[in-house]
Design goal:
The chain is α/β, with parallel strands linked by helices and 298 residues long. The chain has three domains: 81 residues, Arc Repressor Mutant, subunit A (Orthogonal Bundle); 103 residues, 3-Layer(aba) Sandwich (D-Maltodextrin-Binding Protein, domain 2), CATH 3.40.190; 92 residues, 3-Layer(aba) Sandwich (D-Maltodextrin-Binding Protein, domain 2), CATH 3.40.190.290. The chain has eleven helices and twelve strands. A hairpin with a 2-residue loop joins strand 1 and strand 2.
């Protein structure tokens, strides 16, 4: 009876806790600290007069009220984001911000010089780079454009396939010279962790060399590349990253199972926005110039 009106910021925070399942995960998603989320969840529950979460040792589990709030909140969020996309899609000026999600290795080793050129050509367009190996969500406007390595782009996005992304196993010259038994089962493997779960190397290694030993796990390709350069073991790396490095050698030809596709994607509501369309076209041309490198032909 004494429940107070719910504000959008309250709903936004509760959605984050529902989706992440922990206060720390919600805090990271919202860019605040753990204590802030804890305090605000308590305040929201007191305001509404209901308990939204059960506090478990493993995290926060939604009560029936929490599930109802998640369902209604997501509908409201989709309406707000849909309106935002439609309004942005009517923008015909080559100015404003464009957020691009791109994997770290591709950005650092291939795209950065091209993006610098884009900024020189279009000084009124502000680039926001979301450097992440996780898949950003175009529907929720986590990015306006995504450069993704995948064989299955999401149905909710539009764009184009640019080329194949060739990958194979590399090691330093010194490491290979010190291997008396040069078979994959006897190599020390440098592997991606769960943050790079979309990469096929884990399944490939388990299927083809189940007795292989994993020496190190890392959540970035740049980290795996450096570990291979330092002679720690063998690593599955994209050809654009490893082929130009004379300190590394291919251990085997690129297996078909490790090959993926490079896609350039956006949301359907944004594809006619002038700055988004201009950057999409620019990136397509830039990556086409790098096609031989990305496909392992250089």
């Amino acid at each position: 009876m004494n429940a107070q009106p719910l504000e959008w910021n309250d709903l936004h925070l509760v959605l984050a806790v529902c989706r992440e399942g922990t206060l720390s995960g919600a805090a990271r998603a919202l860019g605040v600290n753990h204590s802030t989320v804890f305090r605000r969840v308590g305040a929201i529950e007191q305001k509404l007069g209901v308990r939204l979460f059960e506090r478990l040792a493993t995290g926060y589990a939604m009560t029936e009220a929490g599930e109802a709030m998640l369902e209604s909140g997501e509908r409201m969020e989709n309406e707000v984001l849909g309106l935002s996309r439609k309004l942005v899609g009517r923008d015909l000026h080559l100015s404003g911000a464009v957020r691009v999600a791109v994997p770290d290795a591709l950005l650092m080793k291939v795209l950065m010089p091209h993006l610098c050129e884009f900024s020189r050509r279009y000084p009124e367009i502000q680039l926001e780079l979301a450097i992440s190996n996780n898949y950003s969500n175009l529907t929720r406007r986590e990015a306006d454009i995504a450069v993704r390595v995948t064989r299955s782009p999401p149905d909710t996005a539009v764009g184009r396939r640019l080329c194949s992304m060739m990958t194979t196993v590399y090691a330093s010259t010194g490491y290979l010279a010190g291997q008396a038994d040069g078979t994959p089962e006897h190599y020390a493997w440098l592997m991606p962790d769960e943050d790079l779960a979309q990469l096929p190397i884990t399944r490939w290694l388990e299927r083809n060399h189940p007795k292989a030993t994993v020496k190190l796990r890392c959540n970035t390709l740049l980290g795996l590349h450096e570990a291979a350069v330092q002679g720690l073991g063998v690593a599955s790396l994209p050809c654009f990253l490893a082929d130009p490095d004379t300190r590394l050698e291919r251990v085997l030809p690129p297996p078909d199972e490790l090959t993926s596709d490079l896609w350039l994607l956006t949301h359907p509501d944004l594809r006619r926005t002038a700055r988004v369309k201009t950057l999409m076209n620019f990136l397509a041309e830039a990556l086409d110039k790098e096609k031989n490198l990305i496909e392992g032909k250089e």
